[in-house]
Amino acid sequence: MTLEFFTISLLNGVSYGLLLFMLSSGLTLIFSMMGVLNFAHTSFYMLGAYFAYTLSGIVGFWPSLLLAPLLVGVLGALFERYSLRRVHKFGHVPELLVTFGLSYLILEVVQLVWGRGTVPYALPPALQGPLFTLYGTQFPKSRSFVMLVALLMLVAVWLLLTRTRIGLVIQAALKNPEMVEALGHNVPRVFMMVFGGGCALAGLAGVIGGNTYVTEPAMAASVGSIIFVVVVVGGMGSLAGAFVASLLIGVVQTFAVAIDWSLASALNSLGHAVNESTFGWPVLKLTISQVAPILPYLFLVLILIFRPKGLLGTRGD
What we know:
By secondary structure, the protein is an all-alpha fold. Helix content is about 70%, strand content about 5%. It has 14 helices and 2 strands; from the N terminus they run ααααββαααααααααα. It has a two-stranded antiparallel ribbon with strand order 1-2. Helix 2 packs parallel to helix 4 (about 90-115), helix 3 crosses helix 8 (about 185-210) and helix 5 (about 140-165) packs antiparallel against helix 8 (about 185-210). The two termini are about 40 Å apart.
């Protein structure tokens, strides 16, 4: 590996991993505070991208960076207040079903309003072009902006939960909601704020992910499964675990897609001739880049076998 390949791949992997963290952090917060696994979480990510696309044409990208997540958060809070709260008392299965149905509803609404194709949600001029060039390879400003926003979001969420009164109320409501309610706090309102805040984080990821990658109706489904992998691998309800798992999966996948090594090439380099007539050739000829998409799911299976609580998880349920 050259220094150029290693450095650029590492930065791309960290950038992708931090975008995954922005998505998984909201899902992790909602689960850790409320015990709700929101199947529609990536749909709010998609809404953030489409809202930002529409708002950027009216007020510009930078105001939409704040307005779009707020709109998504309000929609999430309204959904929790008027739908999810009504089925919460019936257990986890109704919660999963109502959020699963919401994801299809959002998809159909997006296709009706914005169409089934890709929308021209472009980067603002300030984020276009390379941040630096290393041995002829450019690292784009947009990726560095994703990294910056994700790190600022991590610090803000940590400060909110550990250094503010509302953060202490949220943590107390998680452990002993009856006592918090007896002290005069509106626990259902706290949970509504948590759900809306988690959706807003997904919307923020959509604002910067939509123009960095692509904004289309399939964008929610394309990251839906990988987000649940991150949450499970990191540990259900662990924000630190989601951060570690996001970076790990982002870096591993980025390096894997750029490596064309295979078992056949490795055996040939060691002097063991293999060809089409060799037993197991279809497997031996597979390159690391070809199996890169399944690596996170392989990691998920191994984690569930050897450490079901995840890397940094503490919940047993």
